[in-house]
Amino acid sequence: MTSLMLRGSCAALALIAATPALAQTPSADELAALVKAQAAEIASLKARLDKIEGQAVAQAAAPGPAPQVAQQQATPPLVVTPFAPQIVPPGPADIDVGQARAIAREVGVKTEWGAGLPVFRSADGVFTYKPRGRILVDVSSTMGSDYKGRNTTTTGMRALRLGLEGGVGPHFFYQFESDFSENEVDIVTAFLGWRNRLSGKVDYDIRVGHLFNDRAFEGSTGSDSTPFLERSTVSTAIIPQRGFYGIGIMGRMFGPNWHASVSVTGDRIDGQQATNDSRTASFRAHWNPIKTDRSLLHVGAWGFDEALSAAATSLTRSTVIGGRFNGAVRVSTGELLGGRSTTGYGAELGGYSGSLWVMGEAGRRVARLTGDRPNFESKAWSVSTGFFLTGELPPYNPRLGSFGQPNVLRPTFDGGPGAIELTARYENLDYTDLVLGGDGWAATVGVNWYLNSFTRLQLNGIHWRTDNRAGAFTGSDDGQTVSARVGVTF
Length: 490
Description:
Number of strands: 22
Order of helices and strands: HHHHHEEEEEEEHEEEEEEEEEEEEEEE
Organism: Sphingobium limneticum
Strand order of the largest sheet: 3-4-5-6-7-8-9-10-11-14-15-16-19-20-21-22
Strand content: over 45%
Shape: elongated
Largest sheet: 16 strands, antiparallel, barrel
Number of helices: 6
Number of domains: 2
CATH class of the largest domain: Mainly Beta
InterPro entries: Porin_dom_sf (IPR023614), Porin_O/P (IPR010870)
Signal peptide: 1-23
Radius of gyration: 36 Å
CATH topology of the largest domain: Porin
Distance between the termini: 62 Å
Coiled coil: 28-55
Helix content: 10-25%
Pfam families: Porin_O_P (PF07396)
């Protein structure tokens, strides 16, 4: 506008210079006429300028492609996707190196609310940290047994955990959790790890510390993600003598539709160093030969070999068959002493199509005994299934070949119905290779109601049968157990 006004003033001056009479001795009337003419020209130029500016504003407000300069400066938002859309996105200790690098490229301090608790990230993207927790409250009631001591109602905390996980840069990560469910401190997961990529499609991680087994489908699934209140007999009976945890090292490799792990571990955290630890070498692998947006086939195999410590030669085992919180409903081996080593192995076959999933597992454990006594063999198998009435896909994690927490489509806290899942399972356990060994089976039906992705209610009805040859409850016996759980994971 200023340039146009200057042009108007110059034109007026030029008009004065071009009129010699006016330039020499202009009269008052002539000067007034000139000023009036100049003002009119300036007003005309201003009107034209206002019209041009109005058109520019209208064009800027109208929808259309952004200017080329803006397109060059714009930065697309970072989206860190989960390994599968039907499960809750993994935390800092479970993401792959590609996701960790993407997070490290973010700028600015961030606090993001995930499944229940926030994830904190430093301004340079180097440090990540997330609190962890798990509260699982159970009640169980058994009836119908021929033994009064088995017809009990009990309560318990399946898990009461607090912990943390995090990472430094794209490669280093850690996780720590303690459990208080038995009214005492029990360290469960506690490890340091390193991850990297071998190629565009294959990555790996290495973990050192107190490690959770990668063994069997339900045995590799966390207690907060199992579709039933208790894992199947394959996971609870075909197991190293030390249990689900051991201190050692584990390497894992991941491809587009498979994973494999190898570990060497000693005993659990126990504070006793007077004798050698037992040594357990184990492996597990899974493969998804069919994998689409709404269907998947799972094939898995696993095994372990265990050299027993001199302090762990007792192989006596009593395995729950009617739920975790009735200790009287078990299948027993009878007293079994003098173990030298054990070897276990198993297979997994299942998958899902739409909201329906099916999984079959079988396992066998061979215990080698001292002296000339023959080996003792334990055998277990199970078939389970589930269906989501509300349309969710089963919470299968294709990276690990196990179940995770479901991504609920319409949480109850947002006015939706949550996710409702119907489940059923048959499981069998056989210790009869021993003279005093028993056997048993259980059939379970259940319903899971996920209020959101980290809060759920579970109800299981179990019909069980045992035939023990030793212990307080011998002979054939059957009954029913009803169990319920309220669970929160964050």
